[in-house]
Amino acid sequence: MEVILEILKYILPALIVFFTAYFTIRILIKNDQRKRDYEIIMKNKQIVTPVRLQAYERLTLFMERISPDALVMRISKDNLTVRDLQNKMLQTIRSEFDHNVSQQIYVSPQAWEVVKSARENIVKLINTTAQSLKPDDPAIKLSRLLLERFMEQEQSSAKVAIDYLKREVRSFY
Length: 173
Fold this sequence. Notes:
Blueprint (H helix, E strand, L loop, with lengths): L1 H65 L1 H8 L6 H19 L8 H23 L7 H14 L4 H14 L3
Helix pairs in contact: 1-3, 1-6, 3-4, 3-5, 4-5, 4-6
């Protein structure tokens, strides 16, 4: 019995020291891992945030460029017909959209849906306005009617999308 007590005198303190060291080292390793994870997250934010901001900028520019008033000013020429102007506008919107489609990776799904919806509404406005005129009429008629309908809207689709993108960017800060 005395031998067991003698052994316990040495083993018990050794076990206490072992478990204390084990749990202390374990806590230190976890804290170190959390610190490394935080540094990686911060480094990624430093890289990704400018790219995300650039995506919001590009989508805002896209909305500005496909706004009917901007399209009319940029595309309209004297010798075009309604059909020609309509096709050029739709082609420009499609081209601009294709150029910016990759930006959806960096924006929220809701923001991307707002952008797509705005594009669809603008295309619909152009098509319905063009259908109300004869295809061989001068393009100036389509331009005028399109601008009138655009101005009649309480808030254009492009403006709604731009406002949404701005609100979302503000939420980062």
